[in-house]
Specification:
Layout (H helix, E strand, L loop, with lengths): L1 H5 L6 E2 L2 E7 L5 H15 L11 E6 L2 E6 L5 H8 L7 E7 L6 H12 L4 E6 L8 H9 L13 E4 L8 H15 L2 E2 L6 E10 L3 E10 L2 E2 L3 E4 L2 E9 L8 E2 L4 E7 L8 E5 L2 H25 L1
Parallel strand pairs: 2-4, 2-5, 5-6, 6-7
Antiparallel strand pairs: 1-8, 3-4, 9-10, 9-16, 10-15, 11-14, 12-13, 12-16, 13-15
The site of guanosine-5'-diphosphate has 16 residues, from helix 2.
Organism: Lentibacillus juripiscarius
Family: Belongs to the TRAFAC class translation factor GTPase superfamily. Classic translation factor GTPase family. IF-2 subfamily.
Subcellular location: Cytoplasm
Length: 297
């Protein structure tokens, strides 16, 4: 990572992995995301209801994992096409009764292009026609070979629908996360990526940011894509007000002058004037680019 070199190595600490769920339509991505989210509800003291802000965190054995809450490949590819890499680990969901399908292959290609490790979740094991061996066999063609067969891909059998296999999957994600040695410097000025953004009638521009390095604080001056402002409010994935957000944490912020786009990168400036200058320059450039694009048509 480019920022690792700039930071004092002594300041680097472990950060949670950011996980994306991918796979063919109807193989159970949304069901799996719901089932994982549910593990938090049962463990949380007040039953912390997860708010949809585009990403959420769960704690497993006292360690966190961050999940992007948008199944499918659109988010992944649109972010990557904008130069943002937010995913550390991809979970490839394959229905045991259906096997490898076109979007399964597409997902594998995306993950490989991004050099992101893949864990295979063989889902719908409760179904009559479930055939996990066939799934393994089919995936060998794409160099996803289980450990038992001499490869190094982790396969987890599950029935997301019945909440079966979720614990094993979370354990395996922790294992891969440890192997990846994911680090960040919480003392640095924050930077990261926009997960989603919209214009809220009452609150104005609202953006969910994934902090990738540093710690984001309320009242920080930020440039977000071609927008800028000061963080006015910050809410976590449980809908609670927070004052700061550490690496790998998703938070929803208000205080921007306009609505940024998913995949835009954000950066905190120590100096508000500087942030305003950069923000305005970028906005000007953005307007010109949009104009020239429209006139080209
Ligand atoms: P997505 O398109 O990949 O997000 O798939 P969904 O999560 O929407 O699931 C598609 C269908 O498969 C839904 O009707 C689910 O209820 C069902 N489904 C998901 N997981 C399981 C499972 O483990 N077992 C069975 N029998 N059905 C499942």
């Amino acid at each position: 990572d480019k920022y690792r070199d700039q930071d004092d190595k002594a300041e680097l600490v472990e950060r949670p992995a950011v996980v994306t769920i991918m796979g063919h339509v109807d193989h159970g991505k949304t069901t799996l995301l719901d089932a994982i989210r549910h593990t938090k509800v049962t463990e949380g003291e007040a039953g912390g209801i997860t708010q949809h802000i585009g990403a959420y965190q769960v704690e497993n054995d006292g360690r966190k994992l961050t999940f992007l809450d948008t199944p499918g490949h659109a988010a992944f590819t649109s972010m990557r096409s904008r130069g943002a890499q937010v995913t550390d680990i991809a979970v490839l969901v394959v229905a045991a009764d259906d096997g490898v399908m076109p979007q399964t292959v597409e997902a594998i290609n995306h993950a490989k292009a991004a050099e992101v490790p893949i864990i295979v979740a063989v889902n719908k094991m409760d179904k009559e026609g479930a055939n996990p061996d066939r799934v393994m066999q089919e995936l060998t063609e794409y160099e996803l070979i289980p450990e038992d067969w001499g490869g190094n891909t982790i396969f987890v059998n599950m029935a997301a629908f019945k909440h079966e296999g979720i614990d094993s999957l979370l354990e395996m994600l922790q294992l891969v996360s440890e192997m990846e040695e994911l680090k960040a410097n919480p003392k640095a000025n924050a930077f990261g990526t926009v997960i989603e953004a919209e214009l809220d009638k009452g609150r104005g521009p609202v953006a969910t940011l994934l902090v990738q390095n540093g710690t984001l604080h309320v009242s920080d001056s930020v440039v977000v894509g071609s927008t800028f402002g000061r963080v006015r409010t910050m809410v976590n994935d449980e809908g609670k007000r927070v004052q700061s957000a550490e690496p790998s944490t998703p938070v929803e912020i208000t205080g921007l002058n306009d609505v940024p786009q998913a995949g835009d990168q954000f950066l905190v400036f120590s100096d508000e004037k500087k942030s305003r200058q950069v923000g305005e320059a970028r906005q000007q450039k953005h307007i010109q680019e949009t104009r020239s694009e429209t006139t080209k048509v």
